[in-house]
Design a protein that fits this description.
The protein is of the alpha/beta class. Helix 1 runs parallel beside helix 12 and helix 4 packs across helix 5. The strands form two sheets. Strands 1, 2, 3, 4, 5, 6, 7, 10, 11 and 12 form a ten-stranded mixed beta sheet that branches. A two-stranded antiparallel sheet has the order 8-9.
Length: about 350
């Protein structure tokens, strides 16, 4: 039995990193993408769009618009699968809004999608740059599972893999036991974890699951601090006593759109008795991939349930080797939320100020 009882700490750094991002661009995916655009040491190689929070076409439209908003029209955006591997697609307009970005109304991008398929792009990029690329997966794992089918050597070709998904020793956010990304395409998640079984520890995916991502709880004061960091003339107040659906009038365009996204997210969480807050899961995963967040990890063998109807998408971690199976994941067991929000405000605020 392997011993994963002692978490391994990972300190922040700003070493250069090249990231392939796969996302189903809802609100927290949008914040993740904006954050990556704010990091000078991050090379954003491409963004691939997976169905989940919204359908793949809407996710791609969001990605194109967000990249243009952030001054990054150079980053290719592609679409892959249109549905999960074996189950019908379920989207979540009640959580992220009908377009996936809350109340924000982004100007449509002036460019079109890259003609390649997501799987084609993943395989080409990994083969062209072996040992260089970090995979950041903030969506259901459909596209990545299909890429692994096309190129089973991806775990060896990639430098690192970071996944937002699953819940361990923690209540699910979609069913009592399942997290959203794993529940949308459990078969893809099962294939991905199986593909990493037996890899050396440094190649195992870093998994940002609900027990640590729900600690990244963004609040109205963070929106106000972001506007101040961006140099907005007036305070940006997104407050629980204000009317629902109120739109931002911030002088800075990036701040205005982020504020409109987050107001919707705050209202959603309040509607489920979680307070006027927003759990920005994917931003945390992005900061882990970028190397800018402290985290601690524990190795485990992960099983994803794909058969029992009430447990579909449930993720179970064997930290003690009781199954006799090799580890296939490094699950984040600790993080520092205050540091995460200070980093977000500083970095995205600087980007917003630069964009004007």
């Amino acid at each position: 039995m392997h011993d994963a009882s002692r978490p391994v700490p990972h300190e922040p750094s700003r070493d250069p990193v090249a990231i392939l991002l796969d996302c189903d661009t809802g609100i927290d995916d949008a914040l993740a993408l904006i954050y990556l655009c704010s990091q000078p040491h991050v090379e954003l190689v491409a963004v691939t769009s997976t169905p989940g929070n919204v359908d793949a076409a809407q996710a791609a439209r969001n990605n194109l618009a967000l990249l243009e908003l952030c001054g990054r029209p150079d980053v290719p955006v592609v679409i892959g699968a249109s549905s999960p591997l074996r189950v019908p697609l379920v989207t979540t307009p009640e959580t992220h809004g009908p377009q996936g970005i809350g109340y924000a109304e982004l100007p449509p991008a002036r460019r079109t999608l890259d003609a390649r398929d997501a799987v084609e792009l993943w395989v080409e990029a990994a083969r062209a740059r072996p040992g260089e690329l970090t995979a950041l997966l903030t969506a259901p794992l459909t596209n990545f599972a299909l890429a692994l089918r096309a190129e089973p050597r991806l775990p060896e070709l990639l430098r690192r893999t970071v996944i937002m998904g699953g819940s361990y020793y923690y209540q699910g956010n979609t069913t009592p036991t399942a997290e959203w990304n794993a529940h949308v395409d459990p078969h893809a998640a099962a294939e991905v974890f199986a593909a990493f079984a037996g890899q050396p520890e440094e190649r195992l995916p870093t998994v940002c699951a609900l027990e640590t991502t729900e600690r990244i709880e963004l609040r109205p004061e963070h929106v106000a601090a972001l506007a101040e960091a961006a140099g907005c003339a007036d305070p940006e107040l997104v407050l629980p006593e204000q009317p629902e659906g109120l739109r931002s009038r911030a002088s800075n365009g990036l701040v205005r759109h982020v504020s409109d996204m987050l107001r919707f997210y705050f209202e959603f969480h309040r509607g489920y008795d979680q307070g006027y807050v927003a759990h920005v899961h994917d931003y945390f995963a992005a900061s882990v991939a970028a190397g800018t967040a402290y985290c601690a990890t524990r190795t485990a063998s992960v099983h994803v349930e794909t058969e029992a109807p009430r447990l579909m998408g449930t993720t179970v971690a064997d930290y003690r080797g009781l199954w006799g199976e090799p580890p296939n994941a490094r699950i984040v067991s600790d993080n520092r939320p205050d540091e995460s929000f200070a980093e977000f405000v500083r970095s995205v605020g600087a980007l917003a100020r630069t964009l004007g």
